[in-house]
Design a protein that fits this description.
The chain is an alpha/beta fold and about 230 residues long. About 35% of the residues lie in helices and about 20% in strands. The chain has helices spanning about 1-20, 45-50, 70-80, 100-110, 135-155, 165-170, 170-175; strands at about 35, 55-65, 65-70, 85-90, 120, 160, 180, 195-205, 215-220. Strands 1-2-4-5-6-7-8-9 form an eight-stranded mixed barrel, surrounded by four helices. Helix 4 (about 100-110) packs parallel to helix 5 (about 135-155). The longest helix is centred in the N-terminal third of the chain and has 21 residues, at about 1-20.
């Protein structure tokens, strides 16, 4: 009996683990969903992503002052050929001033107002910098970067802070822009105000790629093109 109970527990855990890997939000509740991919996603098939329900794609483009996502051009061209709405993501580095970061972004991402609003992902903390960077300096450089990228894009950015970054700097309360938050399988609340985009599963296993991809939902009644 004990062995049977143990086996049942293992089967249940395995089933839950499988479902978590393959879970996406209910399309009846979240009709507008998409995919977020980059170099770590491997070779992505955006046609397959669209067939699975992705109505848009966000692509990692630039990292800090000189990092470039090597998959951006390939994925961007694929999305354009498919007619899939596409946006670019810059990964903010608090150790580096805004100017080289925005210069990096604009050399990679074309100036095209038909693109989705650009997003700035914030994961790295100033505590990881080789020299001390104050909280005020992080907020100041990020604000400058937001303004610079918006000038290039011709539209407001979307802020994508991680839970840890938001806890450290409270950016959602300092910069009034649409939010993109991450919380696997449950709606996020750490922004302190309504979000527009939600990474609902940051490691979705699917036929989109051999590697996991991030699956994103738009807030019901929201629009990823909201200004």
């Amino acid at each position: 009996m004990l062995a049977l109970l143990l086996l049942a527990g293992l089967v249940a855990a395995g089933t839950a683990w499988w479902r978590a890997q393959h879970w996406t939000p209910d399309a009846a509740v979240y009709p507008d969903q998409g995919v977020h991919v980059g170099e770590m996603s491997g070779e992505v098939n955006l046609r397959t992503a669209r067939a699975l329900g992705a109505g848009f794609a966000y692509l990692d483009a630039s990292i800090g002052g000189d990092g470039k996502d090597r998959s951006f051009t390939r994925n961007f061209e694929s999305a354009q050929q498919l007619g899939l709405p596409v946006g670019a993501v810059h990964h903010f580095d608090p150790c580096i001033p805004a100017d080289p970061q925005s210069a990096n972004f604009v050399t990679i991402v074309p100036r095209d107002t038909s693109l989705l609003p650009p997003a700035i992902a914030m994961d790295k903390l100033a505590a990881e910098c080789p020299q001390r960077v104050s909280e005020a300096a992080v907020a100041s450089e990020l604000t400058t970067l937001v303004n610079q990228i918006e000038i290039h894009a011709g539209r407001p950015v979307i802020l994508k802070p991680s839970r840890t970054f938001e806890r450290a700097y409270g950016i959602a309360g300092r910069i009034e822009r649409n939010l993109w938050l991450t919380s696997n399988w449950t709606e996020p609340g750490y922004g302190g105000r309504p979000w527009l985009l939600w990474t609902a599963n940051d490691a979705l296993v699917s036929d989109v790629s051999d590697e996991p991809v991030a699956w994103v939902a738009v807030r019901p009644s929201g629009d990823v093109n909201d200004e």
